[in-house]
Amino acid sequence: ISCSLFAANTASSLLQLNDDVLGLIISQVNVYQQFEIGRLNRRLEGIVQMLWRTRVRSVVLQDEMFRRSGTGTSSRQFVAFILALAPHMERLSCHQLDVRRLRLLSRHNLEGISHLEWLGDGNRRGRVRFVDEDVRLLNRVFPKLTRLKLRSCQITGKYLCDLEHLSELCLDDCQFLESQHFRDVFRQLSLRKFDIMEDCDEVNCCDLVDLQLCPTLEHIKIADYHLCMESDITQQILRLPRLQKLSIYSKNFVFDVLARIARPSNPPAGAARLIEGFRFSGVLHDYGRFFRELGNLRHLKRLEMHGQPEEEEGGNQLQVLEDQMLRQLSHKLTELTELHLCGYQLESPLGVLEFVTNCRQLRIVDITRSNCHGESFIWRCLGILSKQRWRSEPLELWIRQSDIKPEIVHSPRCLDNVKLLRIDARRIGRSLDFMSGVLKFSFVR
């Protein structure tokens, strides 16, 4: 389906269809092709406008959309397309778009767009690079931006502080950032979320020491070298009054990062009580040390561990969680309400069942993608629960894609004990949210 197809049939078959059917057909092409179709006649323009009013809030633009039959879209056509689409857009994502197209909008004001992603190409050179002057351009064209994500841009950060409405700032693979500009960013902007976790290697740990100048921060995503070099900013981060989430990407300093958070050298008042959730995804080679550090988070409510297979001869092998490590941890984290151990090989069911015994507030045990020795895990768990007279609600057990067959939920024994144990065996899709080597802390204020 293309604009040329509609043009060839405007006087015949396609236009004999009603508006609803034409709308379904037009909705199958990208927004620029919809714009071209709408220019053919007023009826089609009305249908396109109806689609945009009801369906266009978030738009993705790519250079390929503007290449047709070997000829590119003219500057005037591109500007006309953006101006026609702008009243309906709230979020705009540009994937490796030629920055010269963005510069065509320099005389226009698109104040309806609040979220912008610019996912650039780090290999671009010369005039097609996204540079500091383009950040100034964003301030003129999108004066009401509240969320900005820049990837593979050659900016120093000089003009980021001028985006006065910004509440979320994400900088990925921006290799030319300069430290002196962050002080103005943190002092002048009321950021709620700041993300500089991925591949901004030119920014060393000292650059973010001024995070404390932004008391509105709720979610921070940074790399471990911001915490583990000469200047330790961990304490400043923990003192932020509104902090709710802290995500740290770590390749080499996982244990050091966890130690600095779990047992800080000069802890701010009440900091340990504020950490309610922890999540880690990746491969570790010393779970004993890792769990010993976790044991210092005595008030933890939610623990999530997402393992990843180790590549060995004969295929991918799940990492083994030993009973003794889990048993010791269960005696320290007695306030847990959720336990997620996903993608592991359990030495036996006993380690996880220690949490069922010792954590009186435990509501969820998640063994998704784990090998836990089959249905014997279920029967032992029921044996423990049957003795816990104080339980007012059933324990939820998630066995999704584990070595326990999902048909067990229909067994008479499980059906008879539904007031003690509720089993969830639903199939789930592969999650892409677990970046390897990321430690995530959740805080309560």
Query: Mean of residue pLDDT?
Result: 87
- Distance between the ends: 54 Å
Helix content: 25-40%
> Shape from CA axes?
globular
The Cα radius of gyration reads: 27 Å
Count of individual helical segments: 16
Return residue spans where pLDDT drops below 50 for at least 5 consecutive residues: none
Portion in strands: 15-25%
Which assembly state applies to the chains in this document? single chain
Report the count of strand segments: 21
Profile the largest sheet.
15 strands, mixed
Based on secondary structure, the structural category is alpha/beta
Please give the order of strands in the largest beta sheet: 1-4-5-6-7-8-9-10-21-11-12-16-18-19-20
Q: How would you characterize the overall build of this protein?
A:
The protein contains 16 helices and 21 strands. The chain has helices at residues 3-9, 19-26, 31-38, 42-55, 75-85, 99-103, 132-141, 182-188, 234-238, 254-262, 271-274, 287-294, 323-332, 350-358, 376-385, 412-416, and strands at 58-62, 67-68, 71-72, 91-95, 115-119, 147-151, 168-172, 193-195, 219-223, 245-249, 275-282, 302-307, 310-312, 315-317, 320-321, 338-342, 345-346, 364-366, 395-398, 421-424, 438-443. Strands 1-4-5-6-7-8-9-10-21-11-12-16-18-19-20 form a 15-stranded mixed beta sheet. A hairpin with a 2-residue loop joins strand 13 (310-312) and strand 14 (315-317). Helix 10 runs parallel beside helix 12 (287-294) and helix 14 (350-358) packs parallel to helix 15 (376-385). The protein is globular. It starts with a helix and ends with a strand.
